[in-house]
Amino acid sequence: MAVGGVGSSLLLLSGVVVTVGLCRRLARRRLRSRPLLFAFLVEMFSTFQICACTNELSLLGNVEPKPHTALTLTYGFTVLHGLSLAGSTCNPCGTLQPMWGGGTSLRMGGLKIAAQFVAAVLARVFMHFIWSLEMAEPHLGALSQGCSSPMQTTEMQAFCIELLFSVVFQLAVLQAESVNPKYRVHLIALLITMLVYAGGNLTGAIFNPALAFSLHADCFYDKFLSYSLVYWLAPCLGPVSGNAELDLPTEKKDPECGHLGCSSHKSSGCRGRLGRYNTCGFYMG
After folding, report:
1. Residue 89 contacts residue 113 (beta carbons within 8 Å)
2. What is the DSSP letter of 230?
3. Alpha carbon 92 to chain centroid distance?
């Protein structure tokens, strides 16, 4: 693929990021008095950015040199998402964790999960529309691929890999709470890049149910049970396993963060600390 094709994709992604940023800012200014609608729209906009960017980046997996370009893009956009989507979860697993810990109500958690899946569908529809225009080299023939079959191993092995990655990621995020926020985002991005390199060729290393559905909806349609177990159930078990492993004391429980017990930080807020990093695992192969 020519460098010009990569440049056109990056230009498109820049437009998505800027547009989402403007929408989030507008929602903050106009909808503060309507917390449920505000929470739904901000979560939807943020998840839309994750899913739209990852759909486009999935077309760039064969850019030379391989896999250096793909891994560099993975790292770069993970950092970008972590910095630009502070306060958003963008992942049903990250939303379920504070719900289980009592830090988020069932109503608010359900609303955010609904927003995430709505955004996943909208991002897929939007990107497929852009691809149908075939204005850039990476988009040529993109719609004819159908199910890209990210699962390149047995269902049991794929389930264990996604579960393991989710647990490792969960524990790393919790342990990184003491790290300075400006360094933490890079550490988490590096971890995600390493997980993508280790298991991307086997399962995609997604560990985000909404993102998985946006990327591979055709596969869910063809093999719903297998894909729902690997890409929905396994990642959602990660936060539970991570919390059980750490066995955090109840006196550190914070009403904003469930079991995290973190202190507030101006640049991110407790609610976004876990979730905003629990969104970006993707493979571009």
Report:
1. no
2. I
3. 9
Work out the burial of residue 36: count CB atoms within 10 Å of its CB; fewer than 13 is exposed, 13-18 middle, 19 or more buried.
exposed
Task: Give the separation between CA 78 and CA 26, rounded to whole angstroms.
Answer: 24
Q: At what angle do helices 106-133 and 35-57 cross, to 10 degrees?
A: 40
What span, in angstroms and rounded, lies between the C-alpha atoms of 126 and 156?
33
141: exposed, middle or buried (C-beta count within 10 Å: 0-12, 13-18, 19+)? exposed
Residue 243's pLDDT band (boundaries 50, 70, 90)? Answer: low
- By C-alpha distance, which of 138, 180, 160 is closest to 5? 138
pLDDT digits over 34-86, tens only?
A: 999 999 999 999 999 999 999 999 998 888 888 899 999 999 999 999 999 98
Are 9 and 60 in contact, with CB atoms under 8 Å apart? yes
How far is Cα 204 from Cα 223, in angstroms, rounded to an integer? 16
CA–CA distance, 268 with 256 (Å, rounded to integer): 12
pTM for the model: 0.83
What does the angle CA 195 – CA 198 – CA 204 come to, to the nearest 5 degrees? 70
Output 244 or 263, whichever has higher pLDDT. 244
CA distances, 1 to each of 137, 174, 268, 275, 277 (Å) = 8, 39, 37, 34, 30
- Read off the pLDDT band of 258 (50, 70, 90): very low
CA distances from 282 to 73, 150, 168, 189 (A): 10, 11, 15, 11
Q: Note the helical H segments in the chain.
A: 3-30, 35-57, 68-84, 92-101, 106-133, 155-175, 181-199, 209-215, 217-222, 224-228, 234-246, 270-275
Would you tell me how many other CB atoms lie within 10 Å of the CB of residue 25?
10
